[in-house]
Amino acid sequence: MKKIQSRELVLPAIQREFVWKDRQIETLFDSLMRGYPIGSFLSWTVDAETAKQFKFYDFMREYHEWTNPHCTVLDLATDKPVRAILDGQQRLTALNIGLRGSYADRTPGAWRHKAWSYPVRRLYLNVLKPADENEDGRIYDFRLLSDAQRASYDTDPEVHWFPVHLGYELDIHELVGEIAKQGVGTSPEAGQMVVKLWQAIHSEGTLYFYDEENQDVERVLDIFIRVNSGGTTLSYSDLLLSIATAQWTDRDARQEIHSIVDSLNATGAGFNFSKDAVLKAGLVLAGVTDIGFKVKNFNAANMTALQKQWDDITAALTTAVNLLADFGLSDATLTADSVLIPLAYYVHSRGLGDSYRDQPKHAADRALVRSWTLRSLIKAGVWGSGLDSLLRDLRDVIDKHGADGFPIKQIESSMAARGKSLVLGDEEVEDLLNLKYGRNRTFAVLAILFPHVNTRNVHHVDHIFPRAMLHTPKLKALGFDTDAIAAMQDQRDRLPNLQLLEGPENIAKSATDPLSWVTSNYSEDGRSAHLERHAVPWMPSAAEEFDDFFDDRKKALAARIASVLGSPTVASGEPQQHAQAETKSAPVIAE
User: Fold this and answer.
1) What CA–CA distance (Å, rounded) separates 391 from 387?
2) How far is C-alpha 44 from the chain's CA centre?
């Protein structure tokens, strides 16, 4: 810890980010207290000349999932050797956080972009009693706690949370005084527990360190790959990021890739793209022949090509993710991140910039892109197995046929030959009709079925027949039995009772019965047009009519699905109506 503090022990650029969770940190400290070995550690002593070729990073100390998730670059002296960790980063970082720092991750269910959703927590040990029975088999009760969480135990006579960092900072004599100062000096259990903590930190020999001094980078990289094959497995994207970072000369690959991932995920209502998706896109857009995540593909030539084209690649990814947002998609509704890659390749191959999203001359082409994107997300299994082969095929088709426009027919023909046809069978149609409110495919299905919807405006998935009118007490009062109520409430949340409405319109509709709402908001001609646009055969006004309405709307949607998703020709033609009505407006979100 002192070497980390003085930066005599650092992280090489080939290391990934800190990925351990709070539970893993707490369990590690339980192992230390029990005298268990926690595995060996491997470092690499890099001489000054070799060190000049690489970037090095500081260990994470104050981890914050939102504001401080990445390790910082170190500006080290170039005339001294550096000792870098090859194996043990996660454990050493966990020790560094527990003994010197803090940990802040998002409270489950809390807002993603609010500071209060990430309470800062520090490591404590309950020195009055052992841990309660737990599935991890821990004996010592280590907890990462916020100030508020710690204070909530103030009246519990069996709990005293001792700050673990004091066991690192104080000598044994100071520690005895600290126990008394905290009011537990008369407790033999507390005294023994704190002394045992101090000994585990300062005097017990539980760590084993090995150091590699060879300056052959290839050898060191091979060692790194081998020793990181266990634990929280090093992913292929981590390897690619590691090697790119080590081989890029003009840029910091780690910083560049983290930056574009963060930027993409901040688009529209927010996405959740990973390094994997971005790095795979990099290989595809850079023209690498074999885009598989294999070590042999991460050679100097491929990394040089990736670095040289990086600005164009990030620009294409930015335009592509903006298109996805324009199509009404977000993290909540995007069923497959990989769809970003062929979109990015298409705009990259044609040199299309962000103006492609708005210019009228591209309206029909955008409609084709939108149609294909949404249909590929609706069809199950398209972006699953055989992804690399599919991406290569799509790249080849775009190269051959996409110079002047999106080659939807050729693309879908190639996909069908690979067993990934976008045409739906009867069972798949039934599966779509059974989609439920809140499922991520539901928005995509409604958006593609109803091309009048301008998804660049805020749209909500709306219950045509309001949920409030189908609550159990109301249905019981109307004489429905338990089985009928259960059936109606199941149907209530399925596709035949759902439509897309613009946000303000949906809010105004509230829990009004469908017939009253459409009558008060539209003229007679307007009502007919609204029903036709949304494939709604008629509007019910009472719960007694719901079953008949559901069955009729289900038939209407089945016909619409057969029409719109029955063949590439039909599907690519209908959305052009939407293209004519496209207008520039605010980014889209969906509920």
Assistant:
1) 6
2) 33
Look up residue 327 and give its two tokens.
């199509």
CA distance 578 to 370: 10
Segment 134-143 long-range contacts (CB within 8 Å, at least 24 positions apart): 136/23, 136/27, 136/30, 138/26, 138/27, 138/30, 139/30, 139/33, 139/34, 140/29, 140/30, 140/33, 140/34, 140/193, 142/25, 142/26, 142/29, 142/30, 142/33, 142/98, 143/26
Q: 76 in helix, strand or coil? A: coil
Query: Per mean pLDDT, which range of 97-106, 298-307, 385-394, 490-499 is the poorest?
Result: 298-307
Residue type, 369: V
Distance CA 56, CA 46 (A): 11
Predicted pLDDT at 460: 73
Q: Within 13 Å and on the Cβ side, how many CA atoms surround 46?
A: 29
Q: Where are the beta strands (DSSP E) in 146-233?
A: 161-163, 208-212
- Can you give the pLDDT at residue 50? 77
Q: pTM of the entire structure?
A: 0.58
CA 71 to chain centre: 19
Residue 264 near residue 321 (C-beta atoms within 8 A): yes
* CA-CA-CA-CA torsion sign (491, 496, 502, 506): negative
Q: CB–CB of 44/82 below 8 Å? A: no
30, 125, 195, 200, 360 from 188: Cα distances, Å: 20, 15, 11, 18, 79
Note the Cα 338 to chain centre separation in Å. 13
Contact residues for 103 (Cβ-Cβ < 8 A; gap 6+): 22, 25, 63, 97, 120, 121, 122, 123, 144
Which helix (DSSP H) or strand (DSSP E) does residue 389 occupy?
Answer: helix 387-401
Contact 44, 12 (CB under 8 A): yes
With contact defined as beta carbons under 8 Å apart, do 498 and 446 qualify?
Answer: yes
Q: How many CB atoms lie within 10 A of CB 294?
A: 11
Half-sphere exposure of 573 (CA within 13 A, CB side): 7
DSSP label of 356: G
> If DSSP states are collapsed to H, E and C, what string results for 430-497?
HHHHCCECCCHHHHHHHHHHCCCCCCCCCEEEEECCCHHHHCHHHHHHCCCCHHHHHHHHHHHCEHHH
Q: How far is CA 177 from the centre of its chain?
A: 47
435: alpha, beta or left, given left = phi > 0 and alpha = psi -120 to 50?
beta
238 pLDDT tier (thresholds 50, 70, 90): low
pLDDT at 571 over 80: no
